[in-house]
Design brief:
Blueprint: H1 4-14, E1 21-23, H2 30-43, E2 45-50, H3 58-69, E3 72-77, E4 80-84
Parallel strand pairs: 1-2
Antiparallel strand pairs: 2-4, 3-4
Length: 96
Amino acid sequence: MLTSKQRAYLRGLANTLEPAFIIGKGGLNDNMIADIDAALEARELLKIKVLNNSMAEPKEASIEIADRIGADVVQVIGGKFVLYKQSRENPSIALP
């Protein structure tokens, strides 16, 4: 669970990120969730975009992914959301 100070710090880091994954009309599947988990292990912070033609809503998709892989939802704005999960092998982001 992130504190508000940690969440604010991560939001600042995520400002410059481009979406690493795009959820389209196919929605979420197990392969995409596995890829997101692997990317979070490598990068710790990801921005994901949900397209308008997707059946998934950004808030619901972020919560579902976070629950399934043990990540934290940093923020949801419009059609984009940011996830954080500390790397087990190589932690690179030092939270305040």
